[in-house]
Amino acid sequence: MDHSSPQIPAPVVRERCLRLLSYNMQVGLPTRHYGDYLAGAWRHVLPSAARAAQERLERIAELVAPYDFVALQEADAGSLRTRGVNQLEFLARRAGFAHWGLSVTRNLHPVARHSLGFLSRLAPERVHEHRLPSRIPGRSALAVELGAEAGGLVLMLTHLSLGETARRRQLDFLGKRVPPDRPFVLIGDLNCGPEDLRRHGALHAAGLRIHAESPATYPSWRPYRCLDHVLLSPHLRLQKLETLPQTASDHLPLAAEILVPMP
User: Fold this and answer.
1) Euclidean distance between CA atoms 176 and 168, whole angstroms
2) Secondary structure of the chain: what % helix, strand, coil (to 5)?
3) Residue 52: its pLDDT value, please?
4) How far is the C-alpha of 156 from the C-alpha of 144, rounded, in Å?
5) Higher pLDDT, 230 or 51
6) What is the reported pTM?
7) Which among 26, 54, 150, 259 counts the fewest CB atoms within 10 Å?
């Protein structure tokens, strides 16, 4: 008589592939060399020609359209420099995203309304804004919680400070807000290189991983610095990571395909 235990087949884990994009769009201002920062500085406070500005936004809308979730930094929520156009709303409508949201990080109304935000084809269950620690106010993060159709994925999009001390405090803050029981993505312009992120204690303790070969995203005309990142919790698998050609900013867009386990 055979008393061996019956063989129980291993559960099949289904995964959903999601296409993510992170883009510091610099309000859609073209930058082709360092001299443009000085020569085009007026565009950060005064409106460009209406037709040229709309054409640039149209090109960005075409760029973001194929993605499931887009994290945008250095957008404008509607001010003098954009002729009143809320760039997040414009891109959501033009690219056909049903869901979008933003955080106004520095409100210099009527001249400028600096913002970061998201476009999503998946309905968020909750969006929570975090004001990040900084000596100079104006940095934030948006936690976007998706539902069962995306495996309960949480995406935290942000744009961190240039200063090392402030940035380290901001990463400490974000690392402590990684949920241990849900798939999680930290995405955006983190203003530091991969090694800084790998060595950061709070991110390491939270289990966030960065791709071994992160592509350079800055400056867009001759990229050599990795400033834009997608960090993943252990629940997730990275299938693809690449930059996209684009001239409407001083950063290149960073595109990722991730695999999310489905319940």
Assistant:
1) 13
2) 25, 35, 40
3) 80
4) 6
5) 230
6) 0.92
7) 54
Count of CB atoms situated within 10 Å of the CB of 6: 4
Cα 96 from Cα 237, distance rounded (Å): 27
Calculate the alpha carbon distances from 78 to 40, 82, 90, 112 in Å.
Answer: 20, 6, 10, 7
Closest CA to 104 of 136, 67, 146, 139: 139
| Residue carrying structure tokens 């993505």 | 185
Q: Which of 111, 116, 84 lies closest to 100, judged by CA?
A: 116
Sign of CA dihedral 56, 39, 115, 164: positive
Per the prediction, the chain carries an average pLDDT of: 91
d(CA 154, CA 168): 22
Dihedral through CA 215, CA 101, CA 62, CA 221, nearest 10? -40
Mean predicted confidence (pLDDT) in 233-250: 94
What pairs with residue 243 in β-bridges? 254
Longest dimension (CA), the chain: 88
- Residues paired with residue 229 on neighbouring β-strands, in sequence order: 188
The band of 179, judged by pLDDT with boundaries at 50, 70 and 90, is: very high
Tokens of 172: 């400490």
Element (H, E) at 121: none
Do residues 106 and 76 lie in contact, with contact meaning Cβ atoms separated by under 8 Å? no
Run of H or E including 110:
none
**In CATH, what is the architecture of 15-262?**
4-Layer Sandwich (3.60)
What are the sequence ranges of the domains in the chain? 15-262
CA proximity to 67, closest of 96, 89, 93: 96
Cα separation, 25 vs 4, whole angstroms: 62
The answer to whether 131 and 148 are in contact (CB under 8 A) is no
